[in-house]
Each structure stands twice: as structure tokens, then as C-alpha cells.
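Posting this for the archive.
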Amino acid sequence: MISLDIDKLRLWYSKLPSDFQKVIESDFPDPDDAFLKAFAEELAELEFVELKEFFDEFTEALTKLGRIGRIRLLASLSGKTFPYQVKT
């Protein structure tokens, strides 16, 4: 699940290259936004094949995540191993 914990996002942000930091400097999501919390909780329950439909439905939440939230979301999704990627 994507964390909306601002301290965790700031820690992750601090590890980014300085040119990234300059572009997304003040673009943090609101950690108290109930809509974003519901989005993050539902996202955690989804299978990979359900993501496109989910993102199509929740474009407002993707906007509210801000740049740093969307980058973090993409980073977390790309870091997962999906069943079709595992060779037997």
C-alpha cells in the first residue's frame, strides 16, 4: 500500500537526486484526506490486473497524490514481483 505518512515520504524524498527534489519540492499529499486514505486502502487489496480499471476510476485521487505521491506509487508498483514475471 502506498504510505501517506508524510515523514516516510519526506525520508524517501530526501534520497532522491537533487534535480528531482527541486521539481517536486512542495508537492506532498494531504495525509488527512479521507478520500486518499480510502484510495490507499483499496489499492492495497487489488491484484495487478485490476490496477488499470482502478486508476481509471480514481483519477482524482491520483491528482491529489501530487507528483511525489505518484512517483512513489510508480516506484512501489515497479518494485513488486508479479506472478507472470517468475520463471519456473
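The two ends are 27 Å apart (CA to CA). Residues 6-85 form one domain.
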